[in-house]
Amino acid sequence: MPLLLGCIADDFTGATDLASMLVRNGMATVQVIGVPTGPLPEADAIVVALKSRTAPVRDAIAESLAAADELLSAGAKQIFFKYCSTFDSTDEGNIGPVADALLKRLGAGFALACPAFPANNRSIYQGHLFVGAHLLNESGMENHPLTPMKDANLVRVLSRQTEGSVGLVPFAVVDQGATAIRQAMTRLAEGGRRYAIVDATSDQHLMAIGEAAASHALITGGSGVAMGLPANFRAKGLLPERADAANLPAAGGLCAVVAGSCSRATLGQIGFARDHAPVLELDVLGTPDAAALAAQALAWAEGRLDATRPIVIAASAPPEQVAALQAKLGRDAAGALVEHALSTVAEGLVARGVKRLVVAGGETSGAVVSRLGVTRLRIGHEIDPGVPWTFADPTGIHLALKSGNFGGRDFFLKAFDHV
Ligand SMILES: Nc1ncnc2c1ncn2[C@@H]1O[C@H](COP(=O)(O)OP(=O)(O)O)[C@@H](O)[C@H]1O
Ligand SMILES: O=C(O)[C@@H](O)C(=O)COP(=O)(O)O
Asked: Which EC number(s) does the record attach to this protein (predicted)?
């Protein structure tokens, strides 16, 4: 099975989101954790999951290039750089600098940028990113603990992160379909633009954008814009029709949720779970000590673990409490403390027999998956759009890595009916 699409994701939840999109559209896909060292698995698409979204710019570039090199030497015909559907980044990066470095490595001069994901209410109109009816900077993302998004104009946001210039393929063009989009991108590239933000408000738009980008060396975006890519490989006779590629080993055993996302969606899911399952909300501000928090949580879990419903352990807190901890410790140290505590909790839960684990939050998932020593994830069926169950090798447990913003209010309960 020749490798067709090589993907680099800037966080772990984003990687499973993308892998799930590709599986759903007929590509046999494997998610590998970190820059691969040995031989790559057989697959139509490989998604390398990095924890580079909030890493120092230089590290994010170095890891992304190392991943690209591995994927290219395994034969990848196109590279996909996956970032968040809410374009999570800072003025320093890392979306612009990583995309710049990948373009250079690929000897290409132009890439599209499209984080739209209509199934999860992310749409782009006139270059502005909306979450449902709200502009990005009024969606709650302006309060993100690590990557607060205070500007919805993606042309402006990306321009701040690159020395290249950024153009727009507007809705009126996108709505005309693949040929018009291809022509508009060619004009922008010939006019010296390095990037084009591409508007999209529907899956039909995303399919057309994917088709228009069939010949691009690099595509950048959310998982949505990947939905049109398998058809390009199929049209060239490179991708056979595949039977259901989303089957996992049978699941059983104790259930748990560990949450470090402070998004509105995750706070709502914790609120819902309180009425249906044991929920422990850690007082991080009161005990800013990772080992002590983890010990408290694991002591609480004793006797509460069950195979028919989950327990929920959350550090998640509303913006005022996050701000208070950050004022005390600094932004990065606060995030690192909580990630350390929650990965210790996850490790302790698995040692106590948890076999089905939901982790809420991208950075949080990165910390947990790394602590559990997971090297590969096999992708199963979706619980809600963008969040599949996965099977973790070599740990042998089922994991669902939930993007902070994804999932319905009942996600933490519903997940365990779907595995
Ligand atoms: N109570 C808290 N105070 C400060 N930071 C927190 C708290 N709870 C969680 N965090 C940190 O907030 C960040 C949330 O990021 P992440 O896990 O990526 O969630 P999301 O998917 O919503 O972006 C993590 O670094 C996490 O450790
Ligand atoms: O594109 C998305 O929104 C997700 O796939 C994603 O990247 C998740 O990031 P977090 O919200 O930090 O989990």
From this structure: 2.7.1.217
pLDDT at 7: 98
Q: Are residues 357 and 408 in the same domain?
A: yes
The C-alpha angle 203, 208, 214, rounded to 5 degrees, equals 125
Residue ranges making up the domain that contains 72: 5-235
Q: Does the residue 247 lie in any domain?
A: no
Tokens of 222: 């959310």
Measured CA to CA, the distance from residue 32 to residue 76 in angstroms comes to: 15
pTM to 2 decimal places: 0.94
Tell me, using a 6 A CB cutoff, whether residue 269 lines ligand 2.
no
Q: Which atom of ligand 1 is nearest to the CA of 403?
A: 21
Is ligand 1 within 6 A of the CB of residue 404?
Answer: yes
Residues 221 and 331 in one domain: no
Mean pLDDT, residues 110-135 taken together: 97
Q: Is 221 in the same domain as 113?
A: yes
Say which residues have a Cβ less than 8 Å from residue 256's Cβ, sequence separation at least 6: 301, 305, 310, 311, 312, 313, 349, 354, 356, 357, 358
pLDDT at 378: 93
In a domain, 240, yes or no: no
Helices assigned H by DSSP within 314-410: 319-329, 331-351, 362-371
